[in-house]
Known about the structure:
Layout: E1 4-7, H1 9-15, H2 23-35, E2 40-45, H3 58-65, E3 72-76, H4 80-89, E4 93-99, H5 102-109, H6 113-128, E5 137-143, H7 156-169, E6 173-177, H8 185-199, E7 204-208, H9 216-226, E8 230-233, H10 253-262, H11 271-285, H12 294-297
The protein binds zinc ion.
Zinc ion binds next to loops.
Pfam families: HMGL-like
GO molecular function: hydroxymethylglutaryl-CoA lyase activity; metal ion binding
InterPro entries: Aldolase_TIM, HMGL, PYR_CT
Amino acid sequence: MDVLISEVGPRDGLQSIDRIMPTAAKKIWIDMAWAAGLTEVEVGSFVPAKLLPQLADTAEVVAYSARIPGLTVAALVPNARGATDAIAAGAHKITLPLSCSESHSLANLRRTHAQVIEDARLIAAAIRDLPEGRRPHFEGSLSTAFGCTIEGVVPQAKVVELAEALMAAGCDEVGLADTTGYADPASVKSMIAAIWSAVGGDALTGIHVHNTRGLGLANVLAAFDAGLTTFDSSLGGLGGCPFAPGASGNIVTEDLVFMFEAMGVRTGVDLDKLIAVREFVQKTLGDEPLYGFTPLAGLPLGFVSTTQNTDIKQGAWA
Length: 318
Ligand SMILES: [Zn+2]
């Protein structure tokens, strides 16, 4: 694989819609996603069920998914308590969001920057206490990194400062998240360069962008050109952020996979099987709208994906 597509639909997608997907259907979705070649899935969030009843079964879904061989099971945690639950359930990767806009942090997590960073320190310490081989990968996610619906502009220097603070607190890595869809390809490149120069290239490998203003794939391509290798997306573009008004629209996994495969970059994902996952999710969610162009248009005549082209030993971009 040349890039890692991290499917966030079961978490980011489902938390944004009112309908509650039955646990059994989530398990089938995750099984199918894995069978289609997606090797990392964010399956839920350890938030109180009162806040997000859609994700109340996260512990069960994490425990189930952790038994699928070769699948990296990711979960979001709002705080140290959530991380304890995620570790107990067997998550392989835990992500603590830190909203770069402090007003958004207070609205979303009811926490100041200092409190979230203290939580990062506690989580990192708890992970260090685990036996080797059972320690989940710990990512601090820099959400609203490109701007915020409450504060507007978020200065790049602030994002860099928070990236340094998260790494100092013991995170394995930081991630960039354009929660509000404010990023553009130039700001993506400039942000990656600034963070890399502060914390090093190994400390930032992935980005989570939204398609709120139609720039989702352009922003991914900018990040890929800059050297990032992990890209979050949601099946059918399901989801957004319920706490950032107007921030809807994850990028569509089907279109993202098509873009990379068409340009000679291996994702490891089988597009036909991915479309079958979409059909299952659509059937389960009834009239909930799914997005994306590739599933509607179909694949171009004679299209051979890079992943399935055995003549290509290495992706053109590898
Ligand atoms: Zn999202």
